[in-house]
Design goal:
The chain is an alpha/beta fold. It has 9 helices and 8 strands. The longest helix is centred in the last third of the chain and has 20 residues. It is globular, with a radius of gyration of 17 Å. It binds pyridoxal-5'-phosphate.
Length: 232
């Protein structure tokens, strides 16, 4: 297992430096540790090192990890960040605190219907297809206002903001472009009377660009847990 205490500190230092460069308070940026493909023991070790919010991409894998860590459930925040098919929404609605990857109204409607009454509303972000490629999921910028309004009206969801996964880019200036587009859309929706407080953007390779453009949650996997192995 990598030295998670060291890695978490290094990522927090990157966030703090970028926040300082942006004139922002580093405490306004939350670190989501993306634990997909890593075992529950690694999540437990990251918890022991002080990390509380964890991101998962695959429903089955996530549910078994949440069950293995049931003793920590009240202390942890579980965020679903992966592609979500409509026939897999129920376990997500029942087990997670957040979903960042809501990419169509139908998914939001199902999550709202399936969210148990004894739980607080599910926090959600609308995923935006910021670079416009056909292959990526997410709502297009022109569709975003209408979809966001409809989601905000659902009873068991709390629409918190926007999420995007921009294409990898080389320089920090190039990386900033899609993050800036997402922030501009976020500001437009807020001017449109939607009460949003969350911009979920930035990963291991571009978190500085995301923080410079206003990210409030950065989703970091590799820089914390190491390279992922998809072979098994
Ligand atoms: C895997 C993943 C991440 C983390 O990516 P790293 O490059 O490992 O930091 C962040 N967001 C989403 C949606 C992911 O699927």
């Amino acid at each position: 297992m990598p030295d998670l205490t060291h890695n978490l500190e290094a990522v927090q230092r990157r966030i703090a430096l970028a926040a300082q460069a942006a004139g922002r308070d580093a405490r306004s940026i939350a670190l989501l540790a993306v634990s997909k493909t890593f075992p529950a023991e690694d999540v437990r070790a990251a918890y022991a090192a002080g990390q509380r919010a964890f991101g998962e991409n695959y429903v089955q894998e996530a549910i078994s990890k949440i069950e293995a860590l049931a003793d920590l459930r009240a202390a942890l925040e579980w965020h679903f960040i992966g592609p979500l098919q409509s026939n897999k929404t129920r376990p997500v609605a029942e087990n997670f605190d957040w979903v960042h990857s809501v990419d169509r109204l139908k998914i939001a409607q199902r999550l709202s219907e399936q969210r148990p009454d004894n739980l607080p509303p599910l926090n959600v972000c609308l995923q935006i297809n910021i670079s416009g490629e056909a292959s990526k999921s997410g709502v297009s910028i022109p569709e975003a206002v209408e979809v966001a309004r409809a989601i905000a009206a659902l009873p068991k969801l709390n629409l918190r903001g926007l999420m995007a996964i921009p294409e990898p880019a080389g320089s920090i200036e190039e990386q900033r472009v899609p993050h800036r587009q997402l922030r501009e859309l976020f500001e437009r929706l807020r001017n449109d009377a939607l009460e949003l407080d969350t911009l979920s953007m930035g990963m291991s390779s571009d978190l500085e660009a995301a923080v410079l453009e206003g990210a409030t949650i950065v989703r970091v996997g590799t820089a914390i847990f190491g390279a992922r192995d998809y072979s098994h």
